[in-house]
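Design request, tokens follow.
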């Protein structure tokens, strides 16, 4: 496993370790350990990382070359989705969690 693929993907997305940690429910320290290969990524966290970063688990693990746009904004063709994401990214992590919880409630998750 190429240990720096997680960091490469995360930084290309413009996401801080602390933000990614909040998104998948771990500490910033855990993200740092994952990136440096000091801690194995549990399967559930690997899937959460892939979903949060918009890549496959194989891309994170370095099994497959990562194919992604440099920023999340470039990924969205739907302007409403891009607008929501732009506003969401400006929120504090605690507010992001609250909005995510509300959105999941609206779709029945």
């Amino acid at each position: 496993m190429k240990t720096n693929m997680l960091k490469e993907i995360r930084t290309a997305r413009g996401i801080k370790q602390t933000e990614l940690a909040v998104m998948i429910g771990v500490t910033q320290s855990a993200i740092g350990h994952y990136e440096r290969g000091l801690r194995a990524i549990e399967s559930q966290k690997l899937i959460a990382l892939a979903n949060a970063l918009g890549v496959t688990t194989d891309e994170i693990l370095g099994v497959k070359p990562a194919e992604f746009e440099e920023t999340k904004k470039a990924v969205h063709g739907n302007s409403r989705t891009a607008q929501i994401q732009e506003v969401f990214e400006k929120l504090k992590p605690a507010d992001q969690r609250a909005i995510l919880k509300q959105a999941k409630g609206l779709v029945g998750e």
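Comment from the thread starter after seeing the answer: thanks! The radius of gyration is 14 Å.
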